[in-house]
Amino acid sequence: MAEPTTRIGLAGLAVMGQNLALNIAEKGFPISVYNRTTSKVDETVERAQQEGNLPVYGYHDPEAFVHSIQKPRVIIMLVKAGAPVDQTIKTLSAYMEKGDCIIDGGNEWYENTERREKEVAELGLLYLGMGVSGGEEGARNGPSLMPGGSFEAFKYIEDILLNVAAQVPESGPCVTYIGKGGSGNFVKMIHNGIEYGDMQLIAEAYDVLKSVGKLSNEELQSVFSEWNRGELLSFLIEITADIFGIKDDKADGYLVDKVLDKTGMKGTGKWTVQQAAELSVAAPTIQASLDARFLSGLKEERVEAAKFFKSGGFDDILADQPVDKQTLIDDVRKALYAAKICSYAQGMNLIRAKSAEKGWDLKLGDLARIWKGGCIIRAIFLDRIKQAYDRNPDLANLLVDPEFAKEIIDRQSAWRRVVCLAINSGITTPGMSASLAYFDTYRRGRLPANLVQAQRDYFGAHTYERIDIEGSYHTEWFKLAKHLMFIYCQERTIKLYIADLSPILTGLAPQIKTNQNLPCKGVDDSPCKSLMSDPTYQDMCCLGALIKKPNQTYRFNQKNNELVRCSVCLTPKKQLILKLMENWSRSSDEEPNTCFHDLVYLSWRPPPRDYLDCEHRHGDNEPGRRKHLKPLNHHFLLHLLWPLVDVGEGLLAKLCLGVM
């Protein structure tokens, strides 16, 4: 007798595939199943018979499998991501017709989903990438489903998905159409990234309680069971409590203590962190959880490192610190909850950033709703996340939602105590620490990033913005720092600042003091302040601080449209040239530290050799003395390499001193 036509097909019968097929059949939808390894087909059909004679029909031949499904055909694939997906599509599409639909239910890279959607469209086929969360238990009894791609394909099976998905009272089925393209797979990927962070934070809470608080497994089971009745109620807290209560059936003690401390991974956490970098979205908690898994994989190295440092007096626990158990338990609970908020905030920000980039228009509140049941990260506080985004769909960050902000503020002291206690004990809490740093960084209006940007501009001319003036700026930091004296003119007072002076000044200028006030007289007796506002005099500055007798006034001027040449090398100077209008010299027997300004040659090229006296004034063998300038009796030139900068109240003449 011919087998009946089924409503849907499923290819790929590993644990997830088998359980999802049985779930679909149990909800009243006859299903065809196929697997390249035929024994898996027979196993699934046998399970269906044992679990209530469910309408599951197995096929060993791909053509017969495809033709057993009613049109338009819908086939779900649950195979390993990557090449196996492409091979399965190739095998099945050979027998499919225009209007049929393929759904990838695996953890696939979202760009592969978008590529495949375009490729099968050329065959007239529709395509969905559907995230499935909940593990084997969720697949069998109700997962969280995140389908994205062809909306037409979604409508084909919407009724099936609504029945198969986890059901949450007052919220409904844990499924919704996510959006276009690879949005379904992307959302599932971020879900897994949040899961990485959540699991790491729980592991750190366990480590602090066990290693510092000395809680037994029985006590840990009791604590986590209690936590699962409050604000931390979640699937992961529930199963953690269960784990602490399982005795080892192969030896004495508890099984959790025999499990190798080496965490595996399948790649979605790494993808999440890569996307965070691509989108320039901070996700330090998720990053820390990934790094923790990397380090856990270095088991042999860590064992040797522990021996090495123990020989130097460093035990696993640096110091046993007296703690009150109940106080510690309460503090860790608060720290875990606050850090958990940060992990979810980072994940939501990643989804929003990608949605904006791709034009997916994803609804973050809807995502929180469908994660409330079936999935690994299901938690009671997802209700609150949904409410936060319902109140404000444009919420910049969960941290600034009024309710979450209040909860973090109430818990931040305990959070800091736990992190400090762990650090002082030598216990690693990378997730909690990263979350705390994320919170503290986000809440500060002013960060030391100004210094980092200044460094970037220093070595790479990357420019910077100012907080007081619009625009992009670049500063010649090296020249200013190494060869510069600052003359700040305000009203009739010159303030002299000496920056890190070049070696030529060593021993030559001890008389010059920083922040030295000197009388200043503007050109034509006009105050400096008036000159600053007059474009005619933008290239003028009084430099009375550069002479031996500071009470005298020296004026510098640049004649309009006059090409001035250096009196020594006759090189035309396009830069502003300030000429001292006073002939001044000194005798060769004067002490060099009384004044050196007659010979200061402000240029980025070394001066002619005849500017230098090759003899050391105090003897060739005296260390630390520089060659001194040969006295010359002429007008000297001061070459200013940058325009004068208007700094509001004053004028900053930037004068570079050439390396002699």
TrEMBL record:
It holds the Pfam family 6PGD. The keyword S-adenosyl-L-methionine does not apply. One of its GO terms (biological process) is pentose-phosphate shunt. GO terms for molecular function: NADP binding; phosphogluconate dehydrogenase (decarboxylating) activity. Pathway: Carbohydrate degradation; pentose phosphate pathway; D-ribulose 5-phosphate from D-glucose 6-phosphate (oxidative stage): step 3/3. The keyword Oxidoreductase applies. It is an enzyme of class 1 (oxidoreductase). It catalyses: 6-phospho-D-gluconate + NADP(+) = D-ribulose 5-phosphate + CO2 + NADPH. Its EC number is 1.1.1.44. Keywords: Gluconate utilization, NADP, Oxidoreductase, Pentose shunt. Residues 184-478 form the 6-phosphogluconate dehydrogenase C-terminal domain. PANTHER family: 6-PHOSPHOGLUCONATE DEHYDROGENASE (PTHR11811). Belongs to the 6-phosphogluconate dehydrogenase family. This is 6-phosphogluconate dehydrogenase, decarboxylating. It comes from Mucuna pruriens (Velvet bean). The lineage of its organism: Eukaryota, Viridiplantae, Streptophyta, Embryophyta, Tracheophyta.
